[in-house]
Amino acid sequence: MKFRLTAAMLLTAVALPAMADTGAVLIVANEDYQSIRDARGARAMVQAEGVLQQAGFDVDIATDVSANALRAALSGLSETLRTGDDERVIFVYAGYTVSADHGIWLMGTEARSPDFATVESYGVRLETVLALAGQRQGGAIVALADFGFPENAAGGFRGGLPPQITVPQGVTLVRGPAAGIAVFLRDIARPGVNVAQAVARRSDLRIEGFTPPHLTFLPEGHQPPPSADRNAEDRLAWQVAANADTLAAYESYLANWPNGIFAEQARNARQRLMNTPERIEQALNLTRDERRAIQRDLTILGFDPRGIDGIFGGGTRAAVGAWQGANRLTQTGFLNRDQIFELAQQGARRAAQLEEEARARAAEQERADRQFWRDTGAGQDEAGMRAYLQRFPDGIFSAVAQQRLDQIEADRRAAAQARDRAAWDQAAQTDTIAAYDGYIRAFPQGAFADQARTRIQQLSRPQEPEVDEGAARAEEDLMQLPQFTRVIIEQRLAMLGLEPGTPDGTFDRDTRRAIRRYQRRADLPVTGYLTQPIVARLLTEGVLNLLR
């Protein structure tokens, strides 16, 4: 919640001192709502303060206020009218409104879609505002810049003002878009301007209530009361703006004091705030897909954004800052256009480099695969095929070797005696060196003796670290890959010659084998399950391939 000058007095319901001003003005501009879309453009009403003050009005502004704060502001204005001698009053509201058969509400910044139980807590009745303005019959204007309501109202409520509004006697109500209301306020601040004609000049404005044909809000020849110390007012206004140190505060100061003592300082401060890294990135209006592309580039370059979801949270900001530091840039965590282009180029170069490295590893792996297959008998020797499968479980000839071994096993089992086969089954089920030694001692010429000796050699070798398959599967499941993404990944694996089977989005045994082959090529832990960096690389490599 932000206020200008004496607005804080309004919100604590403290009476303003009576002044011999032209009149009292309260401007409420609600733009930044907490739970619904912002009402962009509502704060344009703030720019009317300068011309109204120059005409002698005592102007108070409240921006982004809740329903309770708005009630307090109206209470303060009521006290001002009761104790002061102001002949005129202007109330301006810009923001969201809702209406029903039993009332109209000006919504505070905490507003959500209302119902009969909550509407009074979300907004202030327009009837209350009109009754307050009615204390100055013939000298009261209520101006509404209606933004409707951004959500579907239900339960008898409608977004925006109704077609007809009952206006009390002596009160003039003007409604329309923010731009039209701003022009109208500037017009009536000039002495001798006819109110109805000021409205008629704008096709987007509508006037209701008290509209005599010759009504002028300020009489011809009106002069605002002289200021006792304009420099003191200028310094006070600057102090308020400097203490707030916001873009809106400096713009308000310049609107009221365009040639003030501190105008140059205000312009420099405004420029400083407009050029913050956050605002520069915000002005780019990056789409969700563009944000995902940035996160993919960061991932490929080794800066983990903790997700490729198009949402720039703490992980992405930290990754951006780390990338900026690595490139000797100021570590702001926010990107400008040039940095996004540079990041994309680096990502493309790294992706191409990774693809080339993977291609080279694949070629080397294929050469070693074929050579080992030839060295172990090219599928003509049982021990050689088992050695091949031990070295290349997902190799080029793995299916052929396994099929031949299965046939050898079937033939061997068919020719073995029942006792021999039973002893072998028991040893294989136990699967220990002692069990296979026992089998060989009992059947030194048995049908499975060579197989038992091979298994003893395998069990005697140092065991490779076991892969935590459950953790790998859980990490893949956590990504919740959409069906179309899974299909693209299978298509990419097929393009790489890794034989993932039919690209249908179902990760079957063939797909898992293809993933293991890809992990070996990329010199990554071989699990058969995907990780976020692997997904980013596969998707990026696929895009690069399409662009060739």
TrEMBL record:
Could you tell me which residue ranges the Peptidoglycan binding-like domain spans? 288-338, 488-537
Q: Would the keyword Transport be found if you checked this record's keyword annotation?
A: no
KW Signal (keyword) present:
yes
Q: What keywords appear on the UniProt entry? A: Signal
Task: Report the leader peptide range.
Answer: 1-20
Q: A Gene Ontology biological process annotation?
A: proteolysis
Specify the superkingdom.
Bacteria
MF GO annotations: cysteine-type endopeptidase activity
Residues forming the Peptidase C14 caspase domain are 23-101
Q: What is this protein called?
A: Caspase family p20 domain-containing protein
